[in-house]
Amino acid sequence: MNNTGLAPQQSSYTLKQLALYFLQLGYSGFGGPVALVGYMHRDLVEKRKWISEDEYKEGLALAQLAPGPLAAQLSIYIGFVHYRLLGATLVGVAFVLPSFIMVVIIGVLYKMFGGLPWMQGIFYGVGAAVIGIIAISSYKLTLKSVSKLTIKDISAHWLLWLFFLAACIITAITQSEQVLLFIAAGLLYMFVKAPPKPLPGNKRAFSWLLFAGTGFWQYQYGDLEKMAIFFLKAGAFVFGSGLAIVPFLQSGVVKEYHWLNQQQFLDAVAVAMITPGPVVITVGFIGYLVAGFPGAIVASLATFLPCYLFTVIPAPYFHRFAKNISIKAFVDGITAAVVGALAGSVIVIGIKSIYDIPTAIIAVITVLSLLYIKKLREPYIILAAAAAGLLIRTFF
Questions:
Q1: Does the pLDDT value for residue 205 go beyond 50?
Q2: Crossing angle (nearest 10°) for helices 117-145 and 325-353
Q3: Which structural domain range is residue 84 located in?
């Protein structure tokens, strides 16, 4: 390493090999961000030894600190380690491309057959299961990002819990996300816990992080422009899990712009659950429903562009501020508010989506299954819910 951070070193693998690995992970990696980053460690650090333990940990730290979906950012960083911008770009594209193609194909089928009873039956069950999955994700994120549910931990992190509850209540009442609340939570927690010191070595890094027939071709330029702006903002406020983007998308896509109705939005989240790769790829499905294939491209590029930039720009300098306590406090405050908003969105979406006994039963079974059945993956639940919904709508 030189004084500018990471330096290209002799690698034991080619860029083609790395890109092909992430292409494979993109079409076979189920289980969400935690599972995906685990696969990367197992395959690239332990088995193939392409990436060192230190390089992996540094990439994971950056992915957790900066906005962006965790798995996608870590993949981009790993591409950057030995092959810099070209590696980061090719690896990022390879990782996202398979799931993007899948959601576009599903979008084509959805537009073609979405009005048929069997398709409606499938998503009747799937929509209820998605509520349960988001609820459990919110619960797990809360334990990880705020604190455990013990008196000792809650009292030690009472300010984070205050941010969490405030964001949850405000999101549930207003049925929209308040981005300024996230920033305010981050700033307040930073100034309470670790006020920044204006040291020359980290001033630039800190300021960067802070301010930084099927309808295939049917679209309007005005929609594409609005989508680009909206999804850029969405991509800039995703911390950790891809599901953290759900409340932001729900408030904009359904309530503000009325691009989709509530059921279509739930269907979009469900599509992301049954496809491999990053959960955030749900934006590709949403983009397709709104403005065909051009919409899918614009929504996906706009969402992943901040993720890419938040990785490759600080990567060479990351060692200078990776352990900066002020930045960590800022991110902790934002994360608590974002997770609170996710919990609030569960309430908002649940009230609108759980409207009869069968959907309530499916949602409850989903929650209990994810809580008590170890290693149960979400795609299996989605498929089971789809079958249940089809049976219910057909015979009852």
A1: no
A2: 150
A3: 15-90
- Quick check: is 52 in a domain? yes
Whole-angstrom Cα distance, residue 381 to residue 83?
Answer: 39
Tracing tokens 């819910």 back to the chain, one arrives at 385
CB 280 within 8 A of CB 304: yes
CA–CA separation, 135 and 167 (whole Å): 16
pLDDT for residue 370 is more than 70: yes
Domain count, the chain: 2
Contact 212, 43 (CB under 8 A): no
- What is the phi/psi pair of residue 192, to 5°? -80, -45
Inside any domain, residue 325: yes
Contact 92, 72 (CB under 8 A): yes
Place of tokens 């990351």: 318
pLDDT tens-digit map of 29-54: 765 666 688 788 889 988 999 998 87
Tell me which of 10-14, 358-362, 389-393 is least confident: 10-14
Contact at 8 Å (CB) between 323 and 205?
A: no
62 and 167 co-located in one domain: no
Residue 59 located in a structural domain: yes
CB burial of 320-337 (b: ≥16 within 10 Å; e: otherwise) equals bbbebebbbbbbbbbbbb
Write phi, then psi, for 310 (nearest 5 degrees).
Answer: -70, -10
Q: Is residue 310 one of the residues assigned to a domain?
A: yes
Residues 125 and 85 in one domain: no
Local confidence band at 369 (pLDDT 50, 70, 90 cut-offs): very high
